[in-house]
Amino acid sequence: MQTERTLPELTMDLASQVGDLFRNEVRLARAEAVESAKHMGGGIARAVFGAVLAGSAVTLGLFALAYALAETIPMWAAALIGSVIAGILAYILIKSGLKAASVDNISMPRTVEQVSNDLRTIKEKVTS
Q1: Cα 3-12-118 angle, rounded to 5 deg
Q2: What is the Cα–Cα distance from 15 to 86, expressed in whole angstroms?
Q3: For residue 125, which phi and psi values (nearest 5 degrees)?
């Protein structure tokens, strides 16, 4: 036999359940954010190491370009051409890297999906 519950009891129960739901969603969001940060940290470390190696390779390549151009033009002009090319490439890479690493690209799809499911469930329970 089901006992009749009063409106204050139902309200307290609903408030308790919504509080638990909110705490669980915060835990999920925190876990998802930590997971994303760990993944991002490993990627950043690999990118930095790659950038160091690329810097060495580019430096050697620019020396080779300068020496090749020095066969036909003065060495200072050849070095200047190489540095301008490297500067343009560096600018393009930095701009694209900053765009890719922006905070706008961080998402928490599981949290968003879970919160929308919870809101839908609350609406169904309240209206029925």
Answers
A1: 100
A2: 61
A3: -70, -35
